[in-house]
Specification:
heterodimer, A: six-stranded mixed beta sheet, B: 20 helices, 14 strands
């Protein structure tokens, strides 16, 4: 019996294991409970001008009145069927439900949470209409404050009338993905801005250099093809005309190491995190690249990828003298009468010298004046760079446009991507025109 | 009807009264729960467990060795209960057994030097006080304890601190049940109010019924039963909120569980009866599983259900009880039949059936019980760990060959629930979400959302259910209650009367603890979800029956005077009251 009694000690071990488990549970609760609370109780979400985007008070469960706004918001608010994760609502679930660890989400007084977003329902609607069913994405943000005024990923759908997505896989390709935050695109020529910025800082007298383009050039052992025969061409015009030969030579001169350094500094391959979202990383990897491949990467080809949201902040930095605010979506959350959360605006830190940034901004403005016309940008002082990214045999390339508006009242940076939009800026400029106009209206109101 | 009229009042004019009551009750319930647990726990963890002396062995040199158990191994080795360190005595020489009626027997357990009583060599022999025992030539005499010693021991066993006043714990429990019923009366949906209120009151009535039955049997302790009823009450409140229609079924099963508890208690009361029961249990266990295999149907990937009419029933739950019964054994048998071969063969048959049923969680429970029984029955550590390793390998091999998809899914998301909150981690994420929503005091019984999110909310994830509606404090109490049972059994083992009781209690409590661990830690994503029930708490009739059965084994190990089935009140003519 005494041996038996000793062996009964196993029960103490099991009891100790359970006790440890209980302690782990309590600690996890104490530390993590607010993060576990999603938005599931009463609450209301408003756009920057007070338009209701979501109303779950008094037993209602309403979305925005406009079907286009509802469609534009699915990638931000998520859907209720579980196809699109409501990252934002999960992140602020505890603030929205006035959560605290002691009383949980119990509230006797019928209070509810109210979240104010930075986006404009008006601009969102304009973006959905401007895309008119094309696939792609657009984002516009205030690079001085970080407020995202517009963020739309297309295709999308009205969650009140969800289409049969599986029946039409072509139209609804990747419909549940927020392309602006959670995808990466080949940048095409928009990437020449990275190379140009590096050249401005690293190569003395680059502004006065003259390149010669015969439509193609041999770099390393391979041939770089240009979009045209540009002849003798200066740095400024090389960007304006998007001369591959000139930029391949500049990239070759900078070398893989310097190019990678600048891509790193601009955060091309890094994620941004805000409001529960974490952006997809871009890619700029020249490890093991040949001389040609490094130069080819410098014109935005090779394995380059950018995330639209991250690249938008790069545009903001160019426009804002080398340092831009980081983007965000949630201005504040109130519960009952109490402010639970208010954004702390942050900047991404200085990534360019003021002089370099200003020079590059001016070059981009030159581009707008000579290529697209300022009227596409609400008549404001704007800079932009377009890109065309091949998608493979038999597919129309993606059209990209990245840029900014430099204005005291409307400091906006943007990225527009139209999948299969074809060459250059043609597909993007009408969209940015409508959306910028809408953003300006929203900022005025 | 009266219940509904009042309920309607609280939904209309009396709404504010109901709200105030529910708020007050949400703070009062944890306090009351903690008190109930505290009053039950104190005596269970603090009872005196110094060895009692049942007789003396007088050695040739006049030295008196105390006989401190009902089953004692006499021998030379250090592990023996009575150590006679003389070279002619074998390492394990004989077993000295005391019976319920105070009689003794001596069994030779394969000694070299043989055993003789009053000069006659014996294998097994009844002993009387004064008989001369010879172990390998060493002579000793069995001498009774004096009346003073008996009285002293009885005094210590029944010392006031050793047992909580059962009336007080039952009163607290009743208060808890009445207030819970009142809350349902106010806040239940009109169509469910009758079931909910009557259900909780019925559990209350069952508590008193069992209390009275035990009182009539002159059993005076009610702690483990109070814990079981506390958990059963919480479980019923969970069902009232998730599936009020199945309350009658659950009540029938609680009553059935109490019946099984009493039946097992009766069978365990007399060890010779218990030994006969073993054979019945062995056959019943296999028969149940065989019936399961033939008649069973698959629910949620595991084929461990039998449908009887509109009810479905999980035979493997009852097999747990049979398994323990077969595994428990008295000391003379353990020592004479050293090998565990037949028991392991039996276990193999059981586990084989479970494997065919694809029920991973239950197989794991049986495996733990098997290891514990082998360990308790004196298997060497190396043998037991070898067994464990073999079984784990076999299980892994089985898994690799044919991983049931529902098991695979649970393993692949284990520890990463939050990475896939809409997919594989959905249940656990929702569980944690609801636990957080409840805070420390809960949203109130019937106000939770968890049951709308997760299918097995009131069984596999019942911990989260209780936390959401009753708060984290009340949610942790059932876990603490099971921990207390575990510590109680471990403490009792050192003064255990018979290895039969100790092994039974250890196996039973190991099953309860393992189920609790798998259930709670699976919910919290600390372990993979295995889909086993929380004893007494989860919605499920078969589980309720087996939980009460397991409790009978635990109760049987209670050695306090008048507390358990096994330790009887001494008849009044035997002992005079102690001053």
């Amino acid at each position: 019996m005494s041996k038996l009694a000793r062996r009964a000690w196993f029960a103490y071990f099991l009891a100790a294991a359970m006790l440890v488990g209980v302690i782990v549970i309590v600690v996890r609760y104490a530390v993590g409970a607010p993060d576990w609370v999603p938005f599931q109780s009463d609450g209301m979400i408003l756009d920057r001008s007070g338009t209701v985007l979501l109303d779950k008070t008094d037993g209602r469960s309403e979305l925005a009145d406009s079907p286009a706004v509802r469609a534009a918001m699915i990638h931000i608010l998520g859907d209720t069927q579980g196809y699109i994760s409501p990252y934002l609502l999960n992140e602020y679930g505890d603030e929205m439900s006035g959560y605290d660890r002691i009383t949980g989400t119990r509230h006797a007084d019928g209070s509810y949470g109210k979240m104010q977003l930075t986006v404009s329902a008006y601009a969102q609607e304009a973006a959905v209409n401007a895309f008119a069913g094309q696939k792609g994405t657009i984002g516009v943000y205030n690079y001085k404050t970080g407020e995202i005024l517009c963020m739309v990923s297309s295709p999308n759908y009205d969650p009140r009338n969800m289409p049969d997505v599986e029946a039409d896989p072509d139209t609804y390709e990747g419909v549940f993905v927020n392309r602006f935050l959670h995808s990466a695109y080949a940048p095409g020529s928009t990437f020449k801005l990275v190379t140009a910025a590096a050249a401005l800082e690293e190569i003395d007298g680059i502004e006065d250099r003259v390149f010669h383009c015969e439509g193609s050039a041999v770099i390393g052992e391979e041939v770089v093809i240009c979009n045209a025969v540009h002849g003798d061409i200066g740095f400024n015009d090389a960007l304006c005309k998007s001369c591959n030969v000139a930029f391949a030579q500049i990239a070759q001169e900078l070398g893989a190491k310097k190019l990678s350094e600048y891509a790193d500094r601009f955060g091309i391959a890094e994620s941004l995190s805000f409001d529960g979202f974490r952006t997809q990383k871009g890619n700029f990897d020249l490890s093991g690249a040949t001389v040609f491949e490094a130069a080819w990467a410098g014109v935005g080809q090779y394995t380059d990828q950018i995330n639209p949201c991250q690249y938008m902040t790069f545009m903001g930095a160019i426009a804002n003298g080398g340092e831009a605010a980081l983007p965000y979506l949630v201005e504040s959350v109130r519960f009952g009468g109490e402010e639970q959360y208010h954004v702390e605006r942050q900047t991404g830190g200085r990534i360019l010298d003021r002089q370099t940034a200003d020079e590059l901004a001016e070059m981009m403005h030159y581009n707008v004046v000579n290529n697209y016309g300022e009227w596409y940008f609400s008549g404001l002082y704007a800079g932009a760079k377009s890109g065309t990214a091949e998608r493979g045999e038999g597919q129309t390339p993606n059209a990209l446009l990245a840029g900014f508006v430099q204005s005291e009242d409307y400091p906006l940076a943007f990225v527009v991507i139209v999948e299969g939009g074809g060459a250059g800026s043609a597909a993007c400029t009408p969209i940015i025109r409508q959306v910028l106009d809408a953003c300006i209206v929203a900022m005025n109101s | 009807m009266f219940l509904q009229t009042i309920n309607a009042f609280f939904h209309a004019e009396g709404r504010e009264i109901a709200q105030v009551f529910c708020t007050v009750w949400s703070f009062l319930a944890p306090a009351l729960g903690v008190l109930i647990l505290w009053w039950c726990v104190k005596p269970l963890l603090r009872f005196r467990r110094e060895p009692e002396t049942w007789a003396w062995l007088v050695m040739p040199d006049g030295q008196q060795l105390p006989v401190t158990h009902w089953e004692n191994i006499i021998g030379r080795s250090k592990g023996c209960d009575i150590i006679v360190n003389l070279s002619t005595v074998s390492r394990n020489h004989a077993v000295l057994t005391r019976y319920d009626d105070g009689s003794w027997s001596l069994t030779d357990i394969g000694s070299r030097g043989a055993v003789s009583v009053n000069g006659k060599q014996v294998e097994v022999c009844a002993l009387r006080y004064g008989d001369v025992i010879s172990l390998g030539g060493v002579e000793m005499v069995l001498a009774p304890t004096t009346a003073e010693e008996v009285e002293e021991q009885k005094y210590y066993r029944t010392k006031p601190a050793a047992m909580a006043s059962p009336g007080l714990t039952l009163f607290l429990l009743t208060l808890f049940q009445l207030l819970t019923a009142l809350q349902f009366w106010m806040s239940s949906k009109p169509e469910e109010v009758v079931n909910s209120v009557a259900g909780v009151l019925a559990v209350c009535a069952l508590s008193w019924l069992l209390f009275l039955i035990l009182k009539i049997m002159r059993r005076s302790s009610f702690e483990v039963e109070t814990l079981a009823f506390f958990l059963s009450t919480l479980g019923l409140a969970v069902i009232a909120s998730s599936d009020a229609g199945s309350i009658p079924k659950q009540l029938v099963c609680i009553a059935g569980g109490i019946f099984i508890y009493l039946l097992l208690g009766w069978s365990l009361r007399d060890l010779s009866r218990a030994k006969r029961f073993r054979y019945v249990a062995a056959v019943a266990g296999l028969a149940l599983l065989a019936a399961n295999l033939v008649l069973g149907r698959e629910i949620n990937g595991a084929k461990n259900w039998i449908a009887v009419g509109s009810m479905s029933f999980q035979p493997s739950e009852l097999v747990k009880l049979c398994f323990i019964y077969v595994g428990a054994s008295t000391m003379d048998r353990i020592v004479t039949k050293r090998n565990l071969f037949s028991f392991i063969l039996y276990s193999g048959a059981i586990c084989g059936c479970l494997a065919l049923m694809n029920d991973f969680g239950t197989a794991l429970i049986f495996f733990v019980a098997l290891v514990v029984i082998c360990l308790m029955r004196g298997g060497s550590f190396s043998a037991v760990s070898l067994l464990a390793t073999l079984a784990v390998c076999a299980a892994l091999l089985l898994l690799v060959i044919d991983i049931p998809p529902h098991v695979m899914r649970r393993f692949s998301t284990w520890g990463h629930a939050w990475d896939d909150p809409l997919g594989g981690g959905y249940d656990q994420v929702k569980a944690m979400t609801c636990i957080a929503s409840g805070g420390l005091f809960g949203l109130g019984a019937g106000n939770g959302m968890f049951t709308y999110y997760v299918m097995a909310a009131d069984t596999d994830y019942v911990f989260a259910f209780v936390c959401e509606e009753w708060g984290l404090i009340v949610g942790l109490l059932p876990i603490l209650a099971i921990i207390v049972l575990g510590v109680f059994v471990a403490r009792s083992a050192s003064v255990g009367r018979s290895s039969f009781y100790t092994i039974g209690a250890c196996a039973a409590v190991a099953i309860m603890m393992t189920q609790t661990i798998l259930n709670v830690f699976g919910t919290m994503d600390l372990l993979p979800m295995t889909g086993v029930t929380f004893p007494f708490l989860s919605n499920g009739g078969s589980s309720m029956l087996s939980s009460w059965g397991l409790l009978a084994f635990i109760k049987a190990a209670d050695t306090r005077q008048d507390a358990s089935f096994a330790v009887r009140t001494a008849r009044s003519e035997e002992v005079e009251p102690y001053e």
